[in-house]
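Deviation from plan, reported transparently: alpha-D-galactopyranose complex.
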Amino acid sequence: MNKKRSYSAPGRVCLYGEHQDYLKLTVIPAAINLRTIIDVERSNTNEIKIKSHDLKKTDVIKVNDEITLAKNEFDYIRAIIMVLFNEGIIKEIPGFNLTISSLIPIGSGLSSSAAILVAWLTALNDLLKLKLNKTEIADLCFKAENNILGINCGIMDQYSSSLGGIFSLDCDGPPYKIHQFTTELDGLVIGDSCVRRSANEPLTLLKSQITTGFEKIQEQGDFNLKNLDSNSLTEFRDFITEDEFRRLFGVITIRNITERSSIELTKSENQDIECLGTLLTKQQTMLRDYLGVSIPELDNLVDVSLKSGALGAKLTGAGLGGCIIALAPGKEEEVAKAINNAGGKAAICKIDYDGARKEK
Ligand code: GLA
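Because the crystal trials were delayed, the predicted structure below was used instead.
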């Protein structure tokens, strides 16, 4: 009998630095205690049989055929195998039976895609003795999502899911600079608007508006997104469209908010938690008014959270649907109740410090 083993990887919230990773700026995600679990069993057939508990769907990959995408929910499994072949890390793959189950709602801004990619590669890494470390796993999962599945994402989700914890990640690499924070940051409450969307839509639109606008500014002088300030941006307002101006203003303001929050999160004592809350809400204003990726359902969940005692709140992920994250130490229950009463679905959550792992 082939033994069944389980591997899992967490979802994440983006606390600071939304829409910064694909621009090579800094992000601060936190992995959360909602996981995707894959039960894996070697099989003596030439097939990888996949079953999803939550979707009630199945799929079969024939391992002797050239593996390509099937344009279905299980393309994450295929994309990882394809990337391992493309990179020359494997030359063949045996048969497996997989069962996937997840507590991370799909399309909700909590990184369900990265969790399944990371959990599956963590399984293959162990079972095929690939000797990849967690950073290499994150890099390969990014390649699978970006190059193979064609999602215009950055590297935040894969790093957060693989490494776990709360850290700042300077996305100007590779190699990427990572600084793990030791803070506990209690009082996180997730509010799901239950509006589902594909993350690729806001990502593609924003990326193109921001890069087109920024290229026009670079024609005027030696700027990069790390040093552009709002005065210079305003000086060049006539060279760019109004939408490009708004997007760029939003990006550099969120960059400054992220820098400020990083200072606060680094402190081992006298951390100004109220300031961290205010910075979350300031970011939400940028996401809503300048990047245009909030929707009334998310705005409403942010509002009710603040009214019921949260220190700050913002949408998490690409936007246009999905979840908010509120910081409400000591007021978790009140905020969760307010979110539920407003038609959302609340979950009090904790930071996950393990990242991807083999289950016992
Ligand atoms: C999605 C992407 C991330 C990041 C966020 C926006 O979640 O997968 O890489 O770009 O959107 O911050």
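The pocket of alpha-D-galactopyranose is lined by residues 14, 18-19, 21-22, 153-154, 156-157, 199, 203, 317-318 (CB under 6 Å). We consider this an acceptable substitute for the interim report.
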